[in-house]
């Protein structure tokens, strides 16, 4: 095992930020990138966001709804660490995409608006994180605005999300009276200066809680209150336990204001100490150590038409072990064929840099001509597999058809590519061909995105007619049972992309009734031979 490889990996942190829309994810991402010198002017990420919006209606939809639909990966360096941030969609309708992105992350940062507390999307996204079992760090943002009391916020995190919260720092005052934060590990107070918004925060005023200057700065009353609250936390609060943090049982909580850069360096410094480096992964061949010599990566996301000018398709690969070198040959595990990773790229929003090397923990983007699928493994040797990506069963169904028959080819291509991205599940009605597939999605909003993207990226206008079904189940190929289900008004028999028989059902109750009445066996996932 090469020492330098091990060292490279030890100093890598790959995490995703999850939050309810508007909590400040873009702002925090931008500030983090700023500290790493990845961008020089505050506002860049937003500017990029706006540029992207301008190029596509799909992004316009994102803007109108105030939600982040796509996930992208960004990298920056800070104090000897290489940090990979994975952006996740904020809306629950895209939790399937979020989950896939989280498979590429070693930890998550949960951002909460201090005035709003734990919001609906936070709950859903948190659940997705919990399913992955990764450490979760909490940043409570917008402390410069009037918000809930920090004790209530901690309480809410614990009660609503069911995770223990450990305050790493503690806010002094709040809203108009926000004076700063107290670091519980060092006993240092960091004072908030209104108007730090200009850029890199190097004007932080700090001092020990017992320094006379601090009393002068925050005032006797607030200092007294701070001491009382700290005492309360020390006595009645949770105990810090790194192992429990690693298991996702305790979330370290930080307070701050991303917009003002305040509390962000404090958070980043602690986060880098506490967050895990790339972790070993379980494979069919045993545990894969990140520092093993063999390059192994897997595709966690595919995105077509990222650049409206080139209409290209990018597969995002999380490197799980070893080192990537420009132009290296790998084996594509599903087809057992050799592939050359000629021009992998690192992505920074819309800007791309050709990579010469990358290590376990990093995310690389490769051009894909339609060969790669989500979950595929690329490795130097053949035969390695990871646990399959979890299957999120669609809960909304619609028949999608083209308005103009002349666009048939583009329509089929669009549906095919969006299916390969994992954005939709495509089923074929036995009586109607590919011209009017039945599309299944997890959340209704995905239909809107489908409509926008087919129009914007493929030039196809479609009609979306919702169907009354709420669930899909797979069935064995038994002609008699298929005939019964075809005739029933409670179900619709379809074929999935691999020609497996499936049945759309009105609800769980009716599914049970059909199953009992006719002895049909239903399976929640496609049946494998
Ligand atoms: P998102 O990506 O999670 O959706 O949130 P985003 O960063 O876009 O932030 C949402 C709004 O919250 C923005 O205001 C942003 O400036 C504001 N914000 C973020 N962090 C803080 C903070 O620490 N304190 C305060 N007071 N506000 C914060 P906006 O008016 O929607 O946009 P803009 O006009 O400021 O760009």
TrEMBL record:
Record bears the keyword Oxidoreductase: no
A GO molecular-function descriptor: translation release factor activity, codon specific
Chief subcellular location equals cytoplasm
Q: Tell me the keywords, alphabetical order.
A: Cytoplasm, GTP-binding, Nucleotide-binding, Protein biosynthesis
Please list the GO biological process terms of this entry: regulation of translational termination
Q: PANTHER family this protein is in?
A: PEPTIDE CHAIN RELEASE FACTOR RF3
| Function summary | Increases the formation of ribosomal termination complexes and stimulates activities of RF-1 and RF-2. It binds guanine nucleotides and has strong preference for UGA stop codons. It may interact directly with the ribosome. The stimulation of RF-1 and RF-2 is significantly reduced by GTP and GDP, but not by GMP.
Protein known as? Peptide chain release factor 3
Q: Which gene encodes it?
A: prfC
């Amino acid at each position: 095992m090469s020492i330098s490889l091990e060292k490279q990996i030890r100093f890598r942190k790959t995490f995703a930020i999850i939050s309810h829309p508007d909590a400040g994810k873009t702002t925090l991402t931008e500030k983090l990138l700023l500290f790493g010198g990845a961008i020089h002017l505050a506002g860049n990420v937003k500017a990029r966001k706006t540029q992207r919006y301008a190029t596509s209606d799909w992004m316009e939809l994102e803007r109108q709804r105030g939600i982040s639909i796509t996930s992208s990966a960004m990298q920056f360096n800070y104090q000897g660490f290489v940090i990979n941030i994975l952006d996740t969609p904020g809306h629950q309708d895209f939790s399937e995409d979020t989950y896939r992105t989280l498979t590429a992350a070693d930890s998550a940062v949960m951002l909460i608006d201090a005035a709003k507390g734990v919001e609906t999307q936070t709950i859903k996204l948190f659940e997705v994180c919990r399913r992955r079992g990764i450490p979760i760090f909490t940043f409570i943002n917008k402390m410069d605005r009037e918000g809930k009391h920090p004790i209530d916020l901690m309480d809410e995190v614990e009660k609503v999300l069911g995770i223990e919260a450990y305050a790493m720092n503690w806010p002094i005052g709040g809203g108009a009276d926000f004076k700063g934060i107290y670091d519980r590990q060092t006993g240092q107070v960091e004072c908030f200066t209104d108007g730090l918004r200009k850029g890199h925060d190097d004007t932080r005023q700090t001092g020990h809680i017992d320094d006379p200057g601090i009393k002068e700065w925050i005032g006797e009353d607030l200092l007294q209150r701070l001491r009382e609250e700290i005492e309360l936390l020390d006595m009645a609060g949770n105990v810090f336990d790194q192992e429990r943090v690693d298991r996702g049982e305790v979330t370290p909580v930080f307070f701050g204001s991303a917009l003002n850069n305040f509390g962000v360096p404090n958070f980043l410094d602690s986060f880098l100490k506490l967050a895990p480096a790339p972790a070993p992964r379980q494979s069919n061949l045993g545990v894969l150590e990140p520092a093993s010599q063999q390059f192994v990566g897997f595709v966690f996301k595919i995105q077509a038409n990222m650049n409206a000018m080139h209409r290209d398709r990018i597969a995002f690969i999380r490197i799980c072990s070893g080192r990537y070198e420009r132009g290296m040959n790998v084996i594509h595990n599903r087809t057992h064929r050799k592939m050359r990773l000629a021009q992998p790229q690192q992505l920074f929003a819309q800007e791309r840099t050709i990579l010469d090397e990358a290590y376990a923990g990093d995310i690389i983007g490769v051009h894909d001509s339609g060969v790669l699928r989500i979950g595929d493994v690329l490795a130097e040797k053949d035969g390695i597999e990871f646990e399959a990506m979890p299957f999120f069963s669609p809960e909304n169904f619609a028949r999608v058809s083209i308005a103009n028959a002349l666009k048939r080819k583009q329509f089929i291509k669009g549906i095919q590519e969006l299916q390969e991205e994992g954005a939709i599940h495509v089923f074929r009605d036995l009586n109607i061909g590919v011209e009017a597939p039945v599309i299944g999605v997890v959340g209704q909003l995905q239909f809107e995105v489908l409509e926008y993207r087919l129009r914007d990226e493929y030039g196809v206008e479609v009609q979306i007619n919702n169907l009354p079904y709420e669930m899909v189940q797979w069935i064995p190929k038994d002609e008699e049972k298929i005939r019964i289900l075809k005739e029933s008004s409670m179900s619709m028999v379809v074929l999935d992309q691999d020609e497996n028989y499936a049945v759309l059902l009105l609800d769980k109750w009716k599914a049970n009734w059909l199953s009992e009445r006719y002895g049909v066996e239903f399976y929640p996932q496609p049946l494998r031979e």
